[in-house]
Specification:
heterodimer, A: 330 residues, two-stranded antiparallel sheet, globular, B: 286 residues, mainly alpha, two-stranded antiparallel ribbon, 2 strands
C-alpha cells in the first residue's frame, strides 16, 4: 500500500492517514469476515470441529495478548501461561469450591492475573533481550511450581475437575457446545476490539516506537519504562481473560495449563502467524489448535512436529505466515 | 531443628549445587561467547542421562557411560551450532526460539526411544554406601558429585585464566568484533564452547541420573534451575556460575525441607531480590 500512496499527489499527512485507514480497514474487514463466517458456519458443524473452533477462538485471545508484548513492544515473554493459568485456576477454585458466579469469577480472575503481571513486570522490565526471556521463564516456572506443589490450594497434579459453565440467565444453557461457542466468540471479539483500539492508540504507537528504537523514544521524551510496564500488565490482563474462558470451556484446570510448553506454544502461534499484527497470532492460534488435534489423531508425536514447525518457521518465515505474504515491509 | 538437620541439609544443598554447576557453567559460557540462550541445555542433561543409562545397561561400566554421554551430546551440540544456530547470526530471539524447537524435538525423541518410565542409573559399588560421623550420614555418591564439580571447576578456571585458548575465549566474551579483528577465529571458539558446554551438561545428566534418576520432563525441570544460577551469578562468568550454583542448591534444599508447598518461592524470591539490586547478576558485566 506504500507504493500506491507514494505516487499520488496528496499532501504527506493526508497520505499517511489514508494509508493507515486503508490498512486498518483491510485488516478489520478480514477479521470481521472471518468472525462472521465462523458464526455462520457454527450451527452446521458437527460437535468435534465446533469444539476445536471454540478452542481456537479462546487460544487466539491468549496469542493476541502475547503479541501486544512480543510483536508490538518487542519483549519476548516465555512465561505467558502464568497469567492465563492463574486466571483459570481462580475460576476453577471459586466456581467449584465456593459456587461463585460468572461476574465474581471473572472479576477475581482478572484481578489476580493483572496483579501477578504487575508484580512480575516490575521484576522483568528491568531486563532486556535474552535476560528478559530467561526471567519471564523463571517467573513462569514459579507459578507452575505453585500449581504443582501447593496441593492444598490447587490439588497439585490432579488438577481441578468439574468446573461448571456459567449461568447467564439466558434461555440457552452454556453447557451445550453451540451457545458456549457464541459466548466465547463474543468475548473474544470484545477482547480483539479492545486490543485493536489499544495498539492503534497513541500509547500503542509509542510501544511500536520502543520496539523500533528505545533510545530514540527516550530522546523524544517518552517514558520507556512505563510504556513497557503497562504493556506487560495489559498483556497479562488479556491473557487472564483468555484463561477465564479456557477454564469454563475445558471444565478442568491443571498444571498443564501453566507449564512451559503452553507458554512456548503461545510464542509459536505468534511467530507462526506474524508478530506485530493481531490477526496474525489469531490465525497462528487456529492453525496450531487444528494441527495439534489432527496430528494427534494419527500420531502421538505432537511435540516432535511442533518443534520441527518451530525451527522451520524461524528459518524460512521469520515474519510469520502473514508477514511472508504481506507487501507491507517493515 | 537440630544441628544434624542443618548440616545434613547444607550438605545435600552443596552436592545439588555441584550438580547444577556442571549444567550451568556450560550454559553460561555458551551465552558469554555466542549470546545464545540455549533452551535445549536441559535436554542435553536429560539425553546425557539416557545415553549413560543405555551404556550402563550394555557394558555395565559407569566410566564408559560418563564418557559416551558427554561425547554423544557434544556431537549433538556441535551439530545444532554448526548447521542451525549459525544460520541466524546476531538474531538473539530467533536463536533462542530455535533452541526451544530443538528442546521439544529432543523431549519427544527421548520419549520415543526410552519410553515414559522413570529409570535410575545403577551406581558402581565403589560409589555406594554412606560415610558416618556420629549421627551424621554422608552418602559417598554425593561426595563424589562435589569432587567432580571441584575438579571440573578447577580445570575450567585453569584453562580460562592461565592458557592462551582461555585468553582468546575471554577476549571473545568481552568483545567479539575486536577479538575477530586481532585475528582470533571466533567461530572456531564458538564451536569448541558449544561442544564443551553440551558435554558438561551431559556429564551432569549421567551423574544426576545416579541419584535423581532419568525421566521424561527432567529437561524442562532442570532448565529453570540452570537459568536461575546464571541470572544470579551473571551471564558468561565462571565464578558467577560457581557461586550461583552453590546458592541455588542451598536455597532449593532448605526451601524444600522447611516450606515444602512454597519451595519454588524460596528459590525465586532471592533471585528477584538480587536482580532488583544488581540487574547483571552478582559477577556479570553489562
Amino acid at each position: 500500500m506504500n507504493g500506491a500512496a507514494r505516487t499520488s499527489p496528496t499532501p504527506p499527512a493526508v497520505r499517511s492517514v489514508a494509508a493507515a485507514l486503508h490498512t486498518i480497514d483491510g485488516r478489520i474487514a478480514a477479521g470481521g469476515v472471518a468472525l462472521a463466517a465462523a458464526a455462520a458456519v457454527a450451527p452446521f458443524l458437527p460437535s468435534y470441529p465446533l469444539t476445536l473452533l471454540t478452542q481456537a477462538v479462546i487460544v487466539a485471545v491468549l496469542a493476541m495478548s502475547l503479541d501486544v508484548l512480543l510483536g508490538y513492544t518487542g519483549l519476548p515473554s516465555l512465561g505467558h501461561a502464568a497469567y492465563f493459568g492463574i486466571a483459570a485456576y481462580t475460576v476453577g477454585i471459586l466456581a467449584t469450591e465456593h459456587q461463585v458466579g460468572l461476574a465474581g469469577c471473572l472479576g477475581s480472575a482478572l484481578f489476580l492475573a493483572t496483579a501477578t503481571a504487575a508484580l512480575f513486570g516490575f521484576l522483568a522490565i528491568r531486563a532486556t533481550g535474552t535476560y528478559f526471556l530467561m526471567i519471564t521463564l523463571a517467573l513462569g516456572m514459579v507459578v507452575w511450581g505453585l500449581a504443582f506443589r501447593w496441593v492444598s490450594m490447587t490439588k497439585g497434579d490432579n488438577g481441578i475437575a468439574g468446573v461448571p459453565r456459567p449461568e447467564l440467565g439466558l434461555p440457552w444453557s452454556l453447557s451445550a457446545p453451540l451457545p458456549f461457542f457464541y459466548f466465547a466468540l463474543v468475548a473474544a471479539t470484545l477482547a480483539w476490539a479492545a486490543m485493536g483500539v489499544l495498539v492503534r492508540s497513541p500509547f500503542g504507537l509509542g510501544l511500536k516506537g520502543i520496539r523500533e528504537s528505545e533510545s530514540r523514544m527516550r530522546a523524544l521524551g517518552y517514558s520507556v519504562w512505563l510504556h513497557k510496564y503497562l504493556a506487560f500488565v495489559i498483556s497479562g490482563f488479556f491473557a487472564g481473560f483468555a484463561g477465564v474462558l479456557w477454564a469454563y470451556y475445558n471444565g478442568f484446570v491443571g498444571p498443564v495449563d501453566v507449564q512451559l510448553v503452553t507458554s512456548v506454544e503461545t510464542l509459536l502461534m505468534v511467530a507462526l502467524g506474524g508478530p506485530g499484527t493481531l490477526a496474525g497470532p489469531a490465525l497462528g492460534a487456529a492453525l496450531i489448535v487444528f494441527l495439534k488435534n489432527f496430528v494427534s489423531v494419527y500420531t502421538k508425536r505432537w511435540l516432535l512436529i511442533l518443534g520441527a514447525v518451530y525451527i522451520g518457521v524461524i528459518l524460512w518465515a521469520p515474519r510469520g505466515v502473514l508477514g511472508a505474504f504481506s507487501r507491507d515491509a517493515r | 531443628m537440630s544441628a544434624e538437620f542443618w548440616i545434613t541439609q547444607a550438605f545435600n544443598g552443596i552436592s545439588y549445587g555441584a550438580l547444577l554447576f556442571l549444567l550451568a557453567s556450560g550454559l553460561s559460557l555458551i551465552f558469554g561467547v555466542m549470546r545464545i540462550v540455549n533452551m535445549a541445555h536441559g535436554s542435553y542433561f536429560m539425553l546425557g542421562g539416557y545415553v549413560g543409562l543405555s551404556v550402563v545397561w550394555r557394558t555395565g561400566s559407569f566410566a564408559a557411560a560418563l564418557l559416551t554421554g558427554a561425547l554423544a551430546l557434544a556431537l549433538v551440540g556441535v551439530g545444532m551450532e554448526r548447521f542451525f544456530l549459525r544460520r541466524l547470526p546476531g538474531q538473539t530471539l530467533g536463536q533462542a526460539l530455535m533452541t526451544i524447537g530443538f528442546a521439544l524435538i529432543f523431549q519427544d525423541l527421548a520419549l520415543l526411544i526410552w519410553g515414559g518410565d522413570p529409570y535410575s542409573l545403577p551406581v558402581p559399588p565403589m560409589l555406594q554406601g554412606v560415610l558416618t560421623a556420629g549421627a551424621l550420614r554422608f552418602p559417598v555418591y554425593r561426595i563424589f558429585i562435589v569432587v567432580v564439580a571441584l575438579v571440573i571447576g578447577a580445570a575450567l578456571w585453569l584453562i580460562l585464566d592461565r592458557t592462551r585458548v582461555g585468553a582468546m575465549l575471554r577476549a571473545a566474551v568481552d568483545d567479539r568484533e575486536m577479538a575477530q579483528g586481532v585475528g582470533i577465529h571466533v567461530p572456531r571458539i564458538s564451536f569448541a564452547v558449544f561442544a564443551v558446554g553440551a558435554a558438561l551438561a551431559a556429564l551432569g545428566g549421567v551423574i544426576g541420573a545416579g541419584f535423581l534418576g532419568v525421566y521424561p520432563g527432567a529437561d524442562f525441570e532442570v532448565l529453570p534451575y540452570a537459568f536461575v544460577v546464571v541470572i544470579v551469578g551473571g551471564l558468561g562468568s565462571l565464578p558467577g556460575a560457581m557461586v550461583g550454583s552453590l546458592l541455588v542448591g542451598l536455597l532449593d534444599n532448605f526451601g524444600k525441607a522447611l516450606f515444602p508447598e512454597l519451595s519454588y518461592f524460596t528459590l525465586f524470591a532471592p533471585m528477584a531480590l538480587i536482580l532488583a539490586l544488581k540487574p547483571t547478576g552478582l559477577f556479570g558485566r553489562a
